[in-house]
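Quick review question:
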């Protein structure tokens, strides 16, 4: 697990260093730009090791204000999820019946609070965004032993699959995705953006913020606890991108 965490954070840093090497040196200290395209990885209190993926297209409105369009793809979890090991050494989440994948297009504004000093420092900005949420509710499959010779893979239901010792593991990746349902909702976020780097042509930074998301109906993630239709989380996003 520690190696996976190191890889997740080291890879984007290496990507940034390689991009910086090929950047035009005359860009140093020149931070004026009209458009930016950034992408990154998200970690949040409702997600796993990687909470989701992030993409943003920003456009300058004036010297200190930008508008942006963004798209987030996120795996939303119930904070009460508990993982157990099976007799075969695999693992599963007790009581989990569905995944929730959230697709979040957003429109927002970003205001620069503190600009960089030439060739050094950190630019700090505040931003807020709002948009619709498209929730994909996909069944959570397990492999269950009916007897010593026969097993089945089906959506986990604790009332049917009552013996923990008969659960052998989870289903295949994306198994049952064709049986997914959709949920419609809306989302809002507010954040502080800390930007690093010394070149106009590329950018790297961290976004720290709060996310609120609600759906028109309750999402049955875990059948053994109370489920919700409104989710809130703190998050950070490590991003890298290009400007012109």
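Suggested answer, residue by residue:
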């Amino acid at each position: 697990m520690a190696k996976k965490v190191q890889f997740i954070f080291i890879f984007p840093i290496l990507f940034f260093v390689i991009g910086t090497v090929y950047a035009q040196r005359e860009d140093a200290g020149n931070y004026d730009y009209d458009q930016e395209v950034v992408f990154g990885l998200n970690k949040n209190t409702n997600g796993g090791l990687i909470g989701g993926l992030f993409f943003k297209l920003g456009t300058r409105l004036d010297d200190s204000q930008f508008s942006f369009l963004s798209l987030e793809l996120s795996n939303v979890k119930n904070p009460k999820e508990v993982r157990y090991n099976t007799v075969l050494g695999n693992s599963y989440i007790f009581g989990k019946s569905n995944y929730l994948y959230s697709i979040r297009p957003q429109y927002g504004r970003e205001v620069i609070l503190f600009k960089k000093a030439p060739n050094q420092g950190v630019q700090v900005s505040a931003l807020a965004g709002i948009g619709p949420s498209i929730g994909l509710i996909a069944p959570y499959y397990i492999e269950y032993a009916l007897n010593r010779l026969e097993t089945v893979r089906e959506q986990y239901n604790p009332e049917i699959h009552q013996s923990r010792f008969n659960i052998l593991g989870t289903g295949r990746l994306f198994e049952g995705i064709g049986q997914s349902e959709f949920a419609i909702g809306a989302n809002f976020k507010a954040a502080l953006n800390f930007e690093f780097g010394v070149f106009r042509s590329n950018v790297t930074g961290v976004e720290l913020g709060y996310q609120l998301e609600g759906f028109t109906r309750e999402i049955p993630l875990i059948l053994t606890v109370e489920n919700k239709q409104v989710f809130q989380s703190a998050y950070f996003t490590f991003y890298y991108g290009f400007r012109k």
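Why it works: The two ends are 38 Å apart (CA to CA). The CA atoms of residues 202 and 242 lie 4 Å apart.
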